[in-house]
Amino acid sequence: MAQSELMYDIPSYLVSFGLFALMVGAMLLGTVTGKRLQMNENEESKSQANAVQGSLLGLLALLLGFTFSLSLGRYDQRSTEVVNEANALGTAWLRTDLLSDERREEAKALLSRYGIVRVEAARVSAADFDRREELIRAAETIFGNLWTLASDEAREVGGPVAMAFAASLNDMIDALSSRDAAIDRHVPELVLFLLFGTFILLGGVIGFASAISGVRPGVPIYAMMILIVILVFLIIDLDRPRRGLIEVDQTKLITTVEAMKM
After folding, report:
1. Model's pTM, two decimal places?
2. d(CA 127, CA 71)
């Protein structure tokens, strides 16, 4: 299903550059506002501005830690789902050797085609929803043929081997669903908006506090802003599978499918 979030379809680097520009713009606006009010400010108001600035930095650290942990957890889950699907495919493939001669080769051919489709799906961008859906439907069609074959085997031959093969197919389709669902799970957009809003507000407060104190923002301030933007980029990139610089390793699945080729 296509994502409805606004920022999910915007490239990560554009979001990061946009955030940096908004923070700098907020800081300049805060500086202008602070200079206009500088004559009316006293030590108490300066202390208040510094206290607010410190509180925002603490809130920002909390939000960054929470959001980074959330996006990293999604990334780890997607990595785990790749391994789970590869293991399910490998188990089903091994159990085809125990099927009757009548169906063994057909089952191997279908499983090999299924694996190729799943590897191809792993290489499709998460933003290409139409192609993803097409490949999922293709995999489900092949699975339907496999399930029909397993049902025939259970009815005509029966025994624990047929049941074990059917169980491995069930694990395989469950892995497909879990992996596809994991791709669509990401940090809620509302959390990102809250994070970005805190960044921008912090920029404005920094500019205001610097202006009323008569101190221009120095290199450490800009270094902190750049570091924040880099962290935001990492959070968004981790949260977007098969779209950014950080990608889930598909080696386990590819290796398993390569071993299944007939």
Report:
1. 0.79
2. 17
Residue 73 located in a structural domain: yes
How far apart (Å, rounded) are the C-alpha atoms in residues 66 and 69?
Answer: 5
CATH, residue 234: 1.20.58
Segment 95-150, tens digit of pLDDT: 999 888 888 999 999 999 999 999 998 888 777 788 888 999 999 999 999 999 99
Domain span including residue 81: 9-260
Is 3 contained in some domain?
Answer: no
